[in-house]
## 1
Amino acid sequence: MIKNNNKIFVTEPTLPPLTDYVKFLEKIWKNKWITNKGEFHKKFEKKICNFLRGNNCSLCANGTLALIIALKSLDIKGEVITTPFSFVATANAIHWAGGTPVFCDIENNTLNINPEKIESMITKKTTAILPVHVYGNPCDVKRIKEIAEKHDLKLIYDSAHAFKTMLNNESILQYGDISVMSFHATKVFNTIEGGAIFTKDKKLKNKIDFLCNFGFSDKETIIGPGINAKMNEIQAAYGLICLKIINEEIEKRKKIADFYRGKIKDINGIKIMNKIKGVTHSNPYFPILINKEKFGISRDELYESFKKKNIYTRKYFYPLISHFKPYRCLSSASSKNLKVAEKIANAVLCLPIYGNLSFDELNKIVDIIMENR
Ligand SMILES: *Cc1c(COP(=O)(O)O)cnc(C)c1O
């Protein structure tokens, strides 16, 4: 079978079996209830919460709105310490909630926010920390919690990459005041567009639900200025079916990641992410770091040589968020403040990874790396 004119992209959406989905759609057509917390929304909210072992889940239309609402629900304004090594939505959400992102450098091994640098970024205006579990690897949650408590800061995790990330047999969603997930098409698990907010605080979940639905607490009462961030029945039904096949997808990704690891681990000038003790994740990405001096060619040259063979790798996360126009004027965006992040952003390349990737295709990808040595 010829796929996409033989093009290999960095990912492919995990699609639920169509015949099952059609059955659910027929039910929705019969119910004549297509959004506003219908039967499928309620069911999916419960199921995903149990599946991910989170607490008090609120579904959202997408991950960005989920982040904005999470920040709003805790009345976060002022300065929010975050990482420049993420998708731009992390900083955008802080801006839309009325705050200012403050960029903190990252760690060399996990590529997550460096807890040892967080305290030096705290000022009188700091109200919260918004770290990201980049590529599904957990942040140093213990250390970050200590810092947040010591300085009385709110802690919100952007867990967009951390679908089913477990730390010592505990869900990563158990950390922080709030943890936010994205179910966008490019993530391991998707509802086409979608997101979710998790919190241990039941009262906070109520507030989050109001904020997602214009601020309504009942048909005639508005408790505050909310927004419209509801997930609809078409998405929720899709999510319910996607959940049935997601463990199989995660298993396939594990095999692919192990294959890459085996082939790439001894190549001079390419670094892969070490497995972290006590951590399992869903392999949302397979990043490699290229050292031009040792490998022979640069990250950009390797990217181009993949492209010539119709393989579309991605430079996640290049450029850093701190280089984008809305943020580069911030004092924390200076390269001097972000030495590790700058170095990593110029070296990283994410290889294709998704369940349907064949071993023929994987060999083709690895061969291109070998040819360029
Ligand atoms: C995908 C992503 C988001 C945004 O999620 P959407 O559902 O696309 O709005 C936020 N943060 C990170 C780290 C992401 O990768």
## 2
Amino acid sequence: MTRQPPDTRTRGIHELYAEDPDAADRKLWGREVDPVTRRGFLKRSSLLAMAAAVGGSIPFADRMPGGLIPAALAQSDEPFTLEGKEGLTVLNDRPINAETPPHLLDDDVTPGKVMFVRNNGIPPAMENIDVDAWQLEVGGESCENPQSFSIADLKERFEHHTYQLQVECGGNGRSEYVPSASGNQWTTGAVACPTFTGVRLRDVLEACGIKDDAVYIGYYGADAHASGDPNKDPISRGVPMEKALEDESLIAWAMNGEDIPYLNGHPLRVVCGGWPGSVSGKWLQRIVIRNQKHDGTKMGAPSYSVPKQPVAPGSNVPEEDFVTIQSMPVKSLVTFPKSGIDHALGEAMEVRGHAWAGDLTVKEMHVSIDFGATWQKAELKEPPNRLAWQRWTTTVEFPEPGYYEVWAKATDEEGRAQPMVVPGWNPKGYLNNACHRIAVQVA
Ligand SMILES: Nc1nc2c(c(=O)[nH]1)N[C@H]1C(S)=C(S)[C@@H](COP(=O)(O)O)O[C@H]1N2
Ligand SMILES: [Mo]
């Protein structure tokens, strides 16, 4: 995947806001925007108003990019309860989609109760999930010897493996694109990195015989299409053979040593870490080995696809100009402290989080307290295994009282860093890997 388009287009929007906020609003929203909303904040705010809104002076105000919405106002995490999930923000309840506030992702290994939920359809009724009767069928035109396995068969016939694997929805960060893209308005919380235990997808596929012409696998799950139509699949995606055959690609029955949570695919799911979460099929019932790119629901553009070349925001992109997303881009989160924290002047503040880079590793991690003008290097650990996120930690010191933001920027092993502003616009709002930032009040 080569995807770090220039940010000139988004910068253009900021410039337009700086020059003529009303014209910018009319262009983006087709109308003027209420100044009391977060969006409206962009245009009416003088430095004084901004300081009042964030609750203190802003020592590095002269370095703040024009049109920046302070993180203190841009973020909110209204709690909502979903059974078995604590503190997640529900974005949609039909189907259920819920994301994790960043401070709840501070554990090295993401606990099941805080793992985000992304459902395209209606999950199988909990009472209809019979683990002992569950069958996984393996077939497809490039399968030599189609077979069916119970979960007990899988456990008995194949070696067990445990890996910690990052799963991030391709649409994580979508809410920041302008003009807005349809779909769940994920902010930063459609990512998790629990451990998964199961058998290698490769071992199962090889036991069923992979024909020479095999190029792709596809999955089918037990969930129903949101319309209720039994002839439609909510989603049926897959990966090229090379990804399917990697050591870390699993058919998993356990997460963090326990049953996979119901909303995350119990009793069986595919996990292919580092790629859009949509390739990791939940409530897994069937795998097909294909002699062509899998053509299940949401395999075709524009689903989980981005334009081959950068496009102007709001463009109509013809289907043939899209490419399917594979490895996810470099990204990081600040998981401690929580955004909005008060901090005592003169005391060093510990800051930490995680960084990940799809199929690659993260090579360097930096933080800034002056809106990206200068950066300091953070400590960065090796991943516990390939495709797991990496812990980073550092301490920062503030020169005087006031409002600050801590920005975090990861750089992958090939030298690509996270952009400070939202990357290239795309019709479905995928792959936003802009730097995460938190608000800090120093007094
Ligand atoms: N059967 C099935 N598998 C699925 C989905 C789904 O709706 N149905 N959603 C996919 C998408 S888009 C993502 S991002 C991940 C989310 O995994 P999670 O809900 O366990 O966090 O599951 C993927 N697997
Ligand atoms: Mo997703």
## 3
Amino acid sequence: MPPSTAFATRAARAGRGAPPLAVSRPLMPPIYQSTVYAFESLADVDASYEGDAPGAVYYRYGTPTHAAFETAVAALEGAEAAVAAASGMAAITAAVLSLAGAGDRIVADRYAYGGTYTLLMTELPRLGVEVTLVDVQDHAAVERALACGSDAARPTALLIEALTNPSLRVADVPALCALGAAYDVPVIVDATFTSPALLRPLEHGAALSWHSVAKYLGGHSAATGGVISGRKDLVDLIRNKIVHLGGCQGVQDAWLALLGLPTLPLRMAAHTRTAHTVAEYLAAHSAVERVYYPGLPTHPGYEVAQRLYPDGCGGMLSFDLAGGETAARLVLDNLGEIAFAPSLADVATTVSYPYATSHRGLPDDTLRAMDVGKGMIRLSAGIEDPADVIADLDRALSLCAEGAAQRAGRL
Ligand SMILES: *Cc1c(COP(=O)(O)O)cnc(C)c1O
């Protein structure tokens, strides 16, 4: 039978629509790489827009791939709902703009991640949102900032980081959430460094838990995104903001992130084991002046960490080399299989040098306040056998000892 339509028409309509599977389903949710969804009737359009029937409309509003990732993260966090965004920064931007507008005030951790710091200190003030930075270790200072004086704008959110970059300061999340509750200020916790495997902030009273998906949730340096979990009414507000601002996550990234979730507890246990072993090794090495790992009793946050992190403190640590910048350059250039990569949470161990990357160009007094020196190296412990990571570190650190001996000989 000859085709009833012209070739161009047949081409335009070719391959549209997924054939329904009657007796099986894909075990892994498919990637919905469609910008738009077709409806059978206007009644279905109404039902979809009103939320009366499940139906996707347009990529930027969210697809079934996003929904699969969001549902999975909400389950891990013990949250009513979660929403994904293009990046960690896209997610927190939508969250703070949902909670604060011109005339409002955000109280935030002075030691927050650099991207967060820039958003708070350069973008928000231009929109009329005031920002008060506090050292969240100092609970009296947090309380003063939350107490709304007559001359200060109303605080509408407290933004804290569970473990800070790069000196791993430990926020007492339950105590800070209790302070937020006392002043009726929702607390947002950046739990990127811990992942929900080690800390679920909502269980401690936080309103929202926030992650950069590129880190432990994805875990393989392949997926970019951000995700925020919490009460459904708050998450719905943030979802609207993401739609308005246009910061939706790519579906490939949502799918890759989904692929990382089942192994999260296994990976976090292995990251923690490597980090703890490496931290103990570094603490005993003569070329190392100081180690920042909250699982070591010498860390100022040790007591709080013992209470908050019964399963260990995760894979991030930093250390100061006694030989300063010279030693740092020597070590960084000779790390064998350990890659220099200014991100974190990969399955393989990586290092970064905050002075020249995340904290590049900051004034000296700011760097000092953040413990960032020219001899500081940050290490993201992978899931390898710790002995092999230590072997690479040991070869590099032995060069410091040789360098020091040579310098001493010349004097
Ligand atoms: C990477 C990171 C972010 C920002 O996330 P992006 O996905 O890069 O936008 C926020 N907080 C912490 C602690 C991070 O490490």
